Amino acid sequence: MSEDRHIVIIDDEPDMLETCARVIHRMGYKCTTYEDSCEALEEIYRLQPDLIITDIKMPQCDGFEVLEKAKVCTPKARVIVITGYASVDSAVQAMKEGAYDYLSKPFPIEQLQLTINKALQHIALTEENQLLRAQLQEGLNTDNIIGARGGLQDVFETIGKISNSDASILILGESGTGKEVIARAIHKNSRRSTGPFIPVDCASLPENLLESELFGYERGAFTGANTTKQGLLEMAHGGTLFLDELGELTPAMQAKLLRTLEERAIRRVGGNRLINIDIRVLAATNRDLEKAIRAKEFREDLYYRINVITLKLPVLHERQQDIPLLVNHFCKKFSQDMNKKVSGFTSEAMQAMKSYAWPGNIRELRNVVERAISLSGSEMVEIADLPEKVIGGHKKILPEQENLGAFSFHEAKDICLKRFEMEYLKELLDKHHGNITQAAKSAGMDRKTIHRLINKYDLQRGS
User: Fold this and answer.
1) Would 268 disulfide with which of 67, 216, 413, 438, CB 3.0-4.6 Å?
2) Confidence class for position 405, pLDDT limits 50, 70, 90
């Protein structure tokens, strides 16, 4: 990395420039020298150096002007000032105005090298801290995680506290609350972030397949095992293993997993050799494991092995302040995906979204927003674009005739039009017992229009 560092030296004494440049080149850094300080000021913005070494007393622009210019044009650069006459006052003044350090003429080469190294180490440390902060910020504010400062604030505070720990974590929450998203955030903000993140769905595979997936197998271990296969536990070495739906493991698999976690080693199916693994385990479930333990359906020793730290995710209905954030996030995403110019939800539609109980949590909200964007024919998703279950009965949401005066002309007109479309379509479908062809012919409409309106208002066709 040393060759990437660029140092600018400004001094009206050619011998000083030559000496400093020779030392810096020997240290392995790129160096540009300026005898004319005014020329240097014009070039600083273009060069964007990491370090500027400038004399204080110069005939044209002095070192204080260089320092002031550098703060504006290249704020990340460190400035070292050179003071003649061992002027302590000017050095102190320069430090007050933002200089990193100073050198008093005459100074030995070793002091110049030491000061440069110290300044560049300070730059490297600052850059590393900025990178770590950026990674943390990215981890806590990925596109799939909304609510770090809202309903999930306690969860994110805990993630910050345990970022440097290898403790096992049990994530509890209903289906659709984002347990895997949180697990990925924990991994991303841990010291294992450069290692693999391996998710395992414990509920999706039968026991025999899950065993071979987790532990791998040797060639010839069973019919069809034509090659040796590495298991997911091995693949997670140096990183994080995420066991989703942990509560669905069979007793036999619970026992094998417990032994693996205790020994930190696995044996492939059909193999005899123990393979050491270094993994951190995160697990998630929507089951009450303590109740399962009492019912003898889950091992107590495995529970305590995994449940070192517990994170309980709130259901979406308990995160009222996050609902508009999630709605707007998914609205932007699906508008881009579908190449539609939908900029948001009307206040009435947003109120309906906030009032709904969301039994399916974030997953259900995502689906509702995707459906609304698909059906929307304007720049704003309106209440009639939402399914009836979210609206809670359109008559409860759409104002009665006598309340229309509370809206603008265009809003009132739109409300009346949508009420008419819904009521007309319901009566039309009832009249023809849900027969789309007959309903379309009777109304003088296209079948596709009937289908679009049925989807738009989430209506049943009838019998």
Assistant:
1) 216
2) low
CA distance 257 to 235: 15
Q: What is the DSSP letter of 311?
A: E
Gap between the Cα atoms of 371 and 373, Å rounded: 6
Residue with tokens 């459906």: 371
What residues pair up with 284 in beta bridges, in sequence order? 171
- C-alpha span between 153 and 184 (Å, rounded): 17
Best CA proximity match to 218, nearest among 206, 207, 229, 209: 229
pTM above 0.90, yes or no: no
CA distance 230 to 213: 8
Cis-peptide, bond into residue 359, ω within 30° of zero: no
CA atoms within 13 A of residue 303's CA, in its CB half-sphere: 18
Other C-beta atoms within 10 Å of 396: how many?
9
Model confidence at 197, pLDDT cuts 50, 70, 90, reads very high
**pLDDT one-digit tens code per residue, 276-318:** 999 999 999 988 999 999 999 999 999 999 999 998 888 888 7
How far is residue 47's CA from residue 31's CA, in Å, rounded to a whole number?
11
User: What span, in angstroms and rounded, lies between the C-alpha atoms of 318 and 297?
Assistant: 30
Angle in degrees, 0-180, between the axes of helices 447-456 and 361-375, rounded to the nearest 10: 150
Report the greatest alpha carbon distance in the chain. 102
Helices (H), 264-378: 289-294, 300-306, 323-337, 347-355, 361-375
Query: Roughly what angle, to the nearest 10 degrees, separates helices 323-337 and 361-375?
Result: 50
Long-range contacts at 196-200 (CB < 8 A, ≥ 24 apart): 196/235, 196/236, 196/237, 196/238, 196/239, 196/240, 197/236, 197/239, 197/240, 197/242, 198/232, 198/235, 198/236, 198/239, 198/240, 198/241, 198/242, 199/242, 199/244, 200/232, 200/241, 200/242, 200/243, 200/244
Q: Of 330, 322, 356, which is closest to residue 152 (Cα–Cα)? A: 322
- Report whether 272 contacts 313 (CB < 8 A): no
Q: How far is CA 72 from CA 115, 138, 212, 281, 372, in A?
A: 23, 28, 61, 48, 48
Q: Of 131, 113, 119, which is closest to residue 52 (Cα–Cα)?
A: 119
The one-letter amino acid code at 379 reads E
Q: What's the CA gap between 361 and 314, in Å, rounded?
A: 10
DSSP assignment string, 54-122: EES--SSS-HHHHHHHHHHH-TT-EEEEEEGGG-HHHHHHHHHTT-SEEEESS--HHHHHHHHHHHHHH
